[in-house]
Amino acid sequence: MGEVRTVYRTCPLCEATCGLELTLEGRDLMRVRGDREDVFSHGYICPKAVALIDLERDPDVLRTPMVREGDGFREASWDEAFERVDTGLRRLIESHGPDAVAVYLGNPNVHNLAGLLYNRVLLLALGTSNLYTATSVDQMPKQVSSAYMFGTGLSVPIPDVDRTDHMVILGANPLASNGSLFTAPDLPGRLRALRKRGGKLVVVDPRRTQTAEIADEHHFIVPGTDAHLLFGIVHTLFAEGLVTPGRLAEHTEGVDAVGALAEAFSPEAVAPVCGIAAGEIVRMAREIAAASRAVVYGRIGTCTQEFGTLASWLVDVINVLTGNLDREGGAMFPTPAAGSPNTSGTPGRGRGAQFGRRRSRTHDFPEHFGEFPVAHLADEMLTPGDGQVRALITIAGNPAASTPDAGRLARALEGIEFMVAVDIYLNQTTRHADVVLPGQSTLTRGHYDVAFAALACRNVANYSPPSLDLADGEMSEWEVLLRLAAICAGQGAHANIEALDELAARQVLDRGLKSPATPAKGVDEATAWSMLAGRRGPERLLDIMLRTGPFGDGFGARPDGVSLELLERNPHGVDLGPMVPRIPEVLRTTSGKIELAPEPIVADVDRLRASLARRRNGELVLVGRRQLRSNNSWMHNLPTLAGGSNRCTVQIHPDDASRTGVEAGKHARVSSSAGSVDVEVEVTDAVMPGVVSIPHGWGLDGDGVRARVGAADPGVNSNVLAPSDLIDPLSGNAVLNGIPVTVAPV
Length: 746
Prior knowledge:
Blueprint lengths: L3 E7 L8 E7 L2 E7 L12 H4 L1 H6 L8 E4 L2 E4 L2 H19 L4 E5 L7 H14 L4 E3 L6 H11 L7 E2 L6 E5 L3 H4 L9 H10 L3 E5 L5 H5 L2 E3 L6 H14 L12 E2 L1 H8 L4 H8 L3 H13 L3 E5 L1 H4 L4 H14 L9 E2 L44 H6 L8 E5 L3 H4 L3 H9 L3 E5 L12 E3 L9 E2 L1 H4 L4 E4 L1 E2 L12 H12 L8 H18 L10 H6 L6 H11 L16 H6 L4 E5 L15 E2 L3 H12 L9 E4 L25 E4 L1 H7 L6 E5 L4 E8 L7 E3 L14 H5 L26 E7 L1
Parallel strand pairs: 6-7, 6-15, 9-10, 9-13, 10-11, 12-22, 15-16, 16-17, 23-27, 24-26
Antiparallel strand pairs: 1-2, 2-3, 4-5, 4-17, 8-14, 18-20, 19-21, 23-28, 24-27, 25-26, 25-28
Helix pairs in contact: 3-19, 4-19, 5-14, 9-11, 9-12, 9-14, 11-12, 20-22
């Protein structure tokens, strides 16, 4: 037995960033509770947080580097593992160039301070064009539309849920997801508070989700037609003289152009397509316009569809037209304490969206934010010729489970010449690796939510120092990433990573001190660097970002400002206040204004207009669904979260079950043009007729996978059914909702 002590940390398992109170006995995590003093979550947690105990004790979690030997793996020292990586990668880079190596970054990187700050060092050192991430099976359309409208991919307006009177949610189920691109701990409680104070909650979804159950109003919608509905609302706003942007008018370009685009999308024209009556669409538009403070919010269901960027754009168009963007109770821009500095020289103006600097080899598709669609990764691996992907680096990702046509990507991985993975599990992807480098324990790393603070409904800053020292044989993830970077840069397996770390820190410091908005004006680099003495790794970079950020202490220039030392003294976080209006200074478009009708988006409206002629012909379409006790493919090996409400079933409406001959509790074969799965049937009127639903993130099985709990109830991988050629052309995001399928008894 060891010393019993209490520590406080932010939960790293989803976007809600809830504060945790952990009880440790020596190195053992014994209890997890909500931190009632946390300035943001006030004691709220969900079941995932308690599962941290399982994660720390999971015997399947890798603690030691693994290297391939024959058809299996054996444990190796860190030096041997990096030497194997150096030999494998350098051979291919020297023979075929850096583009022969692809990198895939999984979703957990966004929850990891080292991943967020040091993956970029690795990518710069490697110099490959072949970057792929989980973004293009998730939120890429929202980031693309935000970049076109506001100037950057992280200029995402967030619902001011605590002050709104009327909220419309499309394609999101925050009672299961805890919020996405919308960090708000205890979002279920915040939505109930909205209704309790007399506000109205409206949910639009092809399923009657948990969120729809507590809403004032729920509308079933045909999957993939959110843009049609939203354009019907925009049409009504113009037709009835309800366009009132208010103070945004002088900061907005393209209002008249949007009005002209909306003419073809009358409620009567879109109703047969989206399945919502014209009268209801008109009423929805009037109520949004009439509300004193309203907000429209769309999430994954509006992104992972064929018109994902148009739908994401139209959400913000409505918020602008009704004057609800950048106002209390509407959609607002957070002010993250460790936000990226604006180095354009002119606050409110910047470079704007710049895409297509490179195009992919096999599909001639433009990059977005430096990456290509992961739906095309298998083609890049399987298609011979110059630039063929011959090696793969995956970091906290499982693309063989989480990307379209997952079976084809798994087959492509079987032929890869060399693969290295940074991961804590041998999963469907990492089982193909030549070297697996383990991540570190959650409790031995520092934590700060750089990304989610930029998406939060309130401005807060909360740092969690390591709760434990590194265990024997454990290596910090930032050191792992820097050693990989050194190998990719040709410095070998035993390079001086302290020098690399200092170089990275000096670059971040240089950008921070040059920012026009920095509070460190007049502070020279030598003085600032001296104040970072004793720090290294992610904490040094984070301290620079905090000190030069909007609330920062400016390296002493503003003594009451934020620094890492201040956060270390405040383990429950620092409340920096509610969101405040930020237009025009938050904009980074070339015009310095909100671009309401960006040219690429305007051009894509023709495609949407042509789809007005579509009519449903009785076919079934597939949608996904989220589950509270899961997060993508991460958590299916944790006993606390296994079973219970987590069920991998195909939900089908009673009318469709009768028509197709499938029965509850028995198995059905669900097939698409990409593949088929056999899955248990759940008959329910919670899905609308014509729609079937399978949760994503399942299918944790296969030769070489080490997941004793997950393999006992693997479920099926719905991404087997997603064709890799179905993508949103504006963003490259995969289409995972609205996929035509057939259903038949097994």
